[in-house]
Write a structure and sequence with these properties.
The chain folds into two domains: 132 residues, Enolase-like, N-terminal domain (Enolase-like, domain 1, 2-Layer Sandwich); 230 residues, Alpha-Beta Barrel (TIM Barrel), CATH 3.20.20. 38% of the residues lie in helices and 22% in strands. The chain has 14 helices and 17 strands. The strands form five sheets. The chain has a seven-stranded parallel β-sheet. Strands 4-3-2-17 form a four-stranded antiparallel β-sheet. Strands 1-5 form a two-stranded antiparallel sheet. Strand 3 and strand 4 form a beta hairpin. Helix 1 crosses helix 3, helix 5 crosses helix 6 and helix 9 packs parallel to helix 11. It is globular, with a radius of gyration of 20 Å.
Length: 369
């Protein structure tokens, strides 16, 4: 199906978090996102460009995404004429290096195409309708006792995997405490590239605790060092910040830099690039899982549909809407069941409805292009 972009309404929304989210390099207490309502030749689609504010994970910000969308990406796609969803990534990539902005615009076109065809998004992406296991991500806390209490609550809610953030000085001790309290809970650590190969002894120590994976222990471009570290530990290394492009994933494969790939739709520039990364990893027998930044419900719901592809083998970072946010933009909200599973609602596109009143409530800036 070909479609043309007619008009795009952009709304910068800001929704408070229940608690600050702390990683090794930064902390945020609100969630910023740019919501896109895209009018196309086949109907309306919704997208979300969702970088965190400030210096968090990546250099892209809500402001840089807004600038890229309004001055470059949307006008260029309007001039481009009719495209298929599969062609949008190739059309947008040369126009801007703002992957989050590209993801927000491209995902809205996938949404519009699925709605127009009366099909769920997973069917267009080549997935299959299945429940998705949800894993919880827990930021750095002030004390180990606080961390253990938080994890205890999330395990009680049914989450199928626990991920904790680590940094130098906050690594082996919290993991040891969690393993003492939760001997059988699937557990992993995420370093957000906070270590160097000179600190390999930390991961050799963590190797004793039966972890699912070490997520991004070293810098994103340190593929040779990551390969060397993987040779020294039995726990699989998962690449996240390293896996931003198809070319990067191919280098990961060729160097043996890790055994698992975390795919984030926003980071890689949209659904098509994420799907291609999934397929490339599958061809090399590298299992994947769907990561988040985290995003609000629009992008999270689209991520769930992508996560129905077969090589997404580990629990996703998509959590219940109420996990982080005091509110969300979808009806119904995203929830996990008692067994820690996410179920995609029946219906076309994502199966969720966007609530315009909530968008208006949390809007801080609007524009039409």
């Amino acid at each position: 199906m070909q479609l043309k972009v007619k008009q795009v309404e952009l709304v910068h929304v800001r929704i408070p978090l229940h608690e600050p989210f702390r990683i090794s390099t930064a902390e945020v207490s609100v969630k910023d996102a740019i919501v896109l309502r895209v009018e196309t030749s086949v109907g309306v689609g919704w997208g979300e460009a969702s970088p965190m504010a400030g210096d968090f994970y990546v250099a892209e910000t809500p402001e840089s995404s807004w600038e890229a969308l309004t001055t470059s990406l949307i006008p260029a796609l309007q001039r481009h004429g009719a495209v298929t969803c599969e062609q949008v990534a190739d059309a947008l990539e040369p126009m801007s290096d703002q992957a989050f902005a590209r993801a927000g615009l491209e995902s809205a076109l996938w949404h519009a195409a699925a709605a127009a065809r009366g099909k769920p998004l997973w069917a267009l992406l080549g997935g299959r309708n299945r429940p998705i296991a949800s894993g919880v991500a827990v930021g750095i806390t002030d004390t180990i006792d606080e961390l253990v209490d938080k994890v205890d609550g999330y395990v009680g809610e049914g989450y199928r995997r626990v991920k904790i953030k680590i940094k130098p000085g906050w690594d082996v001790e919290p993991v040891a405490a969690l393993r003492e309290r939760f001997a059988d809970v699937p557990l992993m650590v995420d370093a957000n590239a906070a270590y160097t190969l000179d600190q390999a002894d930390v991961f050799e120590a963590l190797d004793r605790y039966d972890l699912m994976m070490f997520e991004q222990p070293l810098a994103g471009d340190a593929l040779d060092d990551l390969a060397a570290l993987q040779q020294r530990v039995t726990t699989p290394i998962c690449l996240d910040e390293s896996a931003e492009t198809l070319e990067a994933v191919q280098r990961i494969i060729s160097k043996g830099s890790g055994r698992i790939i975390n795919i984030k739709i926003q980071r890689v520039g949209g659904l098509q690039r994420a799907r291609q990364m999934h397929d490339l990893a599958a061809s090399a027998n590298l299992p994947c899982w769907l990561g988040t930044m985290p995003e609000l419900g629009i992008a999270s719901a689209q991520g769930l549909h992508l996560a129905t592809l077969d090589n997404f083998a580990f629990p996703t970072d998509v959590e219940s809407s109420a996990r982080w946010f005091v509110d969300d933009l979808l009806e119904p909200p995203i929830v996990i069941d008692a067994a820690g599973m996410l179920h995609i609602p029946d219906g076309p596109a994502t199966g969720y409805r966007v609530n315009p009143d909530k968008i208006a409530k949390y809007a801080v800036k609007r524009a039409c292009v």
